[in-house]
Write a structure and sequence with these properties.
Anoctamin_TM (chains A, B); homodimer; four-stranded antiparallel beta sheet; disordered N terminus; flat; about 725 residues; 24 helices
């Protein structure tokens, strides 16, 4: 892409090019929506809002937004922000995140090391409870239900620069990830780090896949093993990488210092041993509430499962066995059914999941987020993987039996209008389905993520401008000309949705699952993933820039419980891919029993058993070796600690004079003082060299005696 | 036991009662054996020995020992020992074991907090290489091959007191374990801590076992599950307990500061980034050497396996199918065979294991020890468990087929002298074998550990005194009367063998394995273990006191890799006990296919699969919950760190004055100075209350407009 074209893209994407921007690191925007409130109520709420914000020491500027909203621009004076950042660093030190006190005293004002540090403190000033020193504005909760969102302004020039920089590179370096962290905080940066590592590692399955596709038979066992081993090594490597990055970004263990959600219902407050005010909710109650998730998972598994099975059956029947009228239209029926029902049921289940997660009463926002995303991940897995699993383990093996039965039943029910014919299950269906899902799925994801919302945003803009031309000049939006661009940008950003990094991580994990679970089906899967992920990293970056509000730069020390999901997928993969190879592969070496279907199914548990244990043994071996090698940053940390403490020891080591012998004076002293019997023992040979003589004497005497003894016996 | 009798035991066991003992914390004994050296050679070696010892600053006294040995009593002056202990504490701080520098400077002299701390420093002074400040005396290595051992003196009164104290108590407390640590160091104390925890936890399987024996059917599935869950919970609890104790005893992470073994062959030395001299041996070479263990394990498995199978077959045949002459004598043949061959083969394999471990070139003594004990543990497992596994999975199921075949073969080979008769495999054999092995095995272990060596020691003593009476007065042992008792005690201790804690831990782990692997066979197994372990703890204590030299009080932060062995046994147990229940139990609910032997074996993999996964899921759940609860000591550590750092923060928090509004002066300043456009934005509503008014105005205007709009449409 030549430079001129890229510039055009930048203008197209980012709007105003090259204009001077407000510094973004000390500002926040509160979107107050008064469309659903009565005038007096709105005025009262609004006044309270400004009061709360001002009471923290923040400055405000109010402008109008679109659609009966007010944009409250909040700014922190230099001293307030600098002091808040400083206190945050002290808190880090208190909780052991950093090793050294940052110096200074309670009134110190510091500059943020990077923009996100300042913005995070701004967020705290706006969002934290009054007891913690914030203004207490939590959007859409409690008395602020009319506050639609709070967000920082995008740093457009920095965004542009970084995107441009990333687009030119093939691989990201640690410094590039640092720059992402500087903009959007550690939590978002970890997603990009994970995506980058995953992308680099994907080269191996690509190479292996090309090799397998070319030279190995279909459904190859060796390829399944390679992918299984690759998944394990990748995960273990990522864990070390995560630790390294968390130490580099000084966020290791940061989960321990997060404040409580305002939605957290506690039973009592108490002051703990270290003087901190803790809010207490009984652990057993929390566990009891969390165990509600188990029936929920089973229920949704059932519901989604039944839906997918039914649609699946309809689809099979219509596409392969049906010969009656309207076949052409009916072929689309299942897809339509799924397209209608699945999102509806999916959303209902997600709402139930939200309510349940709320019920679980998590203390911190991190925990809440994680619990919710894990539930949604389970739902997504079912939706994504169940069709393929059905194809692999129900349709292809048993289709020959089931579909004619289905045909018979329908024939009896619906009469002669449904024809009959011989049915042979299509063994290639599995491969075609996997290819379709992974390839087209990736492309449609990309479109859905990027293209569709972009068009939507642009359309809305166009509609708004169209409306504005036709209607009377909206005096609410009479802006001072010098502010127009700034306000336009802020208003646009106010309409965007907040960014949720968990959705993107979820997408990557689902993709990883395809590779882990179904790798033997089509070895070229990884190539599509590789290409997609290179684009994905940059397109996600672009997406955050233009389709979402700037994310609150919260900190995290990794991608969290997704590691467990990845491990679970790898484990399931060892079972699933072994089963696929077993059922579908050509086993030239297995004779007799394996050739019959019955034999195949009988020996399947054994194959799964063996494959799973090979995987577990390999995983234990990888963990053992990598644990010894360990994390480079951790070793560096330990060495630093040693080195800085060593200077104390140096003066010890330089002392070389050790007393070789009892000083003459000391010896005499010991002998002359009246001593107890123990001490007498220790003075008999106190003189130098006496021990030596005594010992030599004893040796000689003993040897002589021995020779005498031998001599006597010899004579005998 | 009344007090007078216990006193008698004390006298009997410990010999001299109530005599004043030499303080033991600053003395070490080197046993120099010159029986295999020529006189001149011996004299030269001995002189070098004394020279090396004296060069460190230690004092010596030489006395004769039994059987052409010299006992070199080594003592450290107060200043030397105190300074060495101090430097050891500084080293702990350097390596991050303790959090605070111990204060003082390079010449500081401290008292050991407990006796073992002093003795450990004595050991370092005698044993460490010259570069590290020691005398370099490593028994039976290099130039000191004639030094048979080095050991500290037993603190007999402390031993007596503690044993008496332990015998009166049912359960040990943390303070009791502290006292053991004070005597013998952390590594040995961890064994007692593990034994104690294991003992306490055994109450649960005992209760469950009585219940199962009384009310549940034989080979009960529920009981197998209970034991499986118990094993998991016990292990996870012990891990937390280990961490707690390691923090309490300030040995956490102590593995990182151990010095290199003198036997460690390194390729080069270099100075690392922190200024420490490191000895380097390529990692890949080390891993390559260690991988030799795999064929070794397979080979020994084969060898021992064949031996056990052959003997087993002979035993079955003779005891149940043989009807020919000499049956009475031949019945003992297998036992005799095993008793002869097994120790021989076992010792050969152990020697091979020793050589291999030496070849593996471990850097520290801990690593070497661990590698060796794990190999020997594998050998012991095979020897202990294989017979039972054979009975359970070969003999009982297939005996009906195999033994008559065996009978036929032997009949053809040996002619008509061997009779034939119908054979029915004895299903109770499994239970009888397990009972025999666990009950009698425990009792014989006890006897072997305690009674036999004690009798041996006493016999040798009697023999020596008998010889002394008959022979000429041995002028070598002409002792000064005031020293007689001390020397006699020291000479006796010099003849004892060193204590290896790994043997005792191994015994407990093997016992645990019986419970984990074969619990459904006889539910009352745990009761025997419970009783045995209470006695074992105290008898092992006694054993160390009277049958072994005082152990070098090395430090460790747990029982080491035995945790992995225990986890492996628990895992195997989930498979093995499920298989036993499946094959032997009465399955009233399973009809048809399960009743046939073929059916049983076909469905066995499925049962194992299910059982194993239930176990793994449960283990993951336990780890997850306990991880949240975590180690109490770790939490205490974190709270302490927080509290001690909090005083810095207190002065921050006490600052309550925050600026509520822009100072008037500040406001005017901001407006008057020439500003850029950004700043102008922020001054429009700088006056107090202006933002409020502007916002209210906007709200009213918007609401009015809305009503106008609605009003117009209504009219329409």
């Amino acid at each position: 892409m030549g430079i001129p074209r890229l510039q055009k893209v930048r203008t197209f994407a980012f709007g105003v090019q090259g204009e001077k921007n407000l510094p973004c690191n000390d500002k926040y925007i509160i979107v107050y929506d008064f469309s659903e409130a009565e005038t007096d109520e709105a005025i009262k709420e609004f006044s309270t809002l400004l009061e709360d914000v001002k009471s923290v020491g923040l400055h405000t500027e109010v402008r109008a937004g679109y659609n009966q909203t007010l944009l409250v621009f909040v700014q922190a004076p230099r001293e307030l922000l600098g002091n808040t950042v400083y206190r945050s660093r002290v808190k880090d030190w208190l909780y052991g995140i950093t090793k050294q006190h940052p110096g200074g005293n309670r009134d110190t004002v510091v500059d943020g090391d990077f923009e996100a540090e300042d913005i995070l403190s701004m967020y705290h000033l706006v969002n934290w409870r009054k007891e913690l020193g914030g203004a207490g504005i939590t959007p859409e909760f409690g008395k602020w239900k009319n506050v639609k969102s709070i967000f920082p302004l995008h740093n457009i020039s920095a965004n542009e620069d970084l995107l441009y920089h990333l687009s030119k590179k093939l691989l990201l370096s640690a410094e590039d990830l640092d720059r992402i962290r500087d903009l959007w905080g550690a939590k978002v940066a970890f997603y990009f780090a994970f995506l980058q590592t995953y992308f680099v590692f994907l080269i191996i399955p690509c190479v292996a896949g090309i090799f397998a596709w070319q030279f190995l038979p279909q459904y190859s066992l060796s390829f399944a093993f390679i992918i299984g081993f690759w998944c394990t090594v990748f995960l273990e490597y990522w864990k070390i990488q995560e630790t390294d990055l968390s130490i580099r970004w000084k966020v290791r263990g940061v989960g321990g210092l997060k404040v409580n959600r305002p939605q957290f219902q506690y039973e009592k407050e108490f002051v703990d041993a270290a003087g901190r005010v803790q809010q207490f909710f009984p652990r057993w109650k929390q566990i009891a509430r969390q165990s509600v998730v188990i029936p929920f998972v089973l229920l949704s598994l059932l519901l989604l499962g039944i839906l997918i099975v039914v649609v699946f059956a309809i689809e099979i029947y219509i596409s392969e066995a049906y010969e009656g009228p309207y076949k052409f239209y009916l072929e689309y029926l299942p897809t339509v059914l799924l397209a209608i029902l699945l999102p509806y049921i999916g959303n209902t289940l997600e709402d139930i999941a939200s309510t349940m997660t709320e019920f679980e009463n998590h203390r911190t926002q991190d925990n809440y987020e994680m619990s919710l995303t894990q539930k949604i991940f389970v739902l997504n897995s079912i939706t994504n993987y169940l069709p393929i699993l059905l194809t692999a383990f129900v349709y292809v093996p048993f289709g020959d039996i089931l579909v004619p039965q289905l045909q018979n039943n329908l024939h009896k029910t619906f009469g002669a209008s449904i024809g009959k014919f011989d049915f042979k299950s299509d063994a290639d269906r599995l491969r075609n389905e996997v290819i379709a899902l992974t390839v087209t799925g990736q492309i449609s994801n990309l479109g859905e993520e990027l293209v569709f919302p972009y068009l939507k945003t642009r359309f809305r803009e166009w509609w708004r401008e169209h409306q504005a031309k036709n209607a009377d000049a909206d005096n609410l939006l009479e802006d001072d000309p010098s502010e127009t661009k700034t306000l336009k940008r802020a208003r646009k950003q106010a309409l965007l949705s907040p960014y949720n990094v968990q959705d993107d991580i979820s997408e990557m994990v689902i993709q990883f699952g395809y590779l882990a679970l179904f790798s033997p089906v089509w070895p070229l899967i990884p190539i599509g993933f590789l290409i997609n992920n290179w684009i994905e990293l940059r397109s996600d970056f672009l997406k955050i820039c233009i389709e979402h509000q700037r994310p609150t730069p919260v900190r995290g020390d990794g991608i969290g419980p997704w590691i467990t999901s990845l491990e679970a997928l790898t484990w399931l993969g060892s079972v699933s891919s072994a089963a696929i190879v077993h059922l579908f592969g050509q086993h030239h070496y297995a004779m007799g029993i394996m050739q019959t279907t019955m034999g195949k199914w009988c020996s399947l548990p054994l194959t799964i058993f063996v494959s799973e244990h090979i995987f577990l043994a390999f995983r234990a071996a990888v963990r053992f070796s990598l644990q010894k090698i360990g994390s480079r940053q951790i070793r560096k940390e330990r060495n630093e600690r040693y080195a800085e403490r060593k200077k104390y020891l140096d003066e010890l080591e330089s002392s070389t004079t050790k007393s070789g012998h009892l000083d003459v004076v000391e010896r005499e002293r010991r002998k002359s003082v009246r001593m107890t019997s123990e001490d007498v023992f220790w003075t008999r040979q106190a003189e130098e060299g006496v021990s030596n003589e005594v010992g030599i004497g004893l040796i000689r005497a003993a040897k002589q005696k021995e020779e005498q003894g031998r001599g006597i016996t010899k004579v005998d």
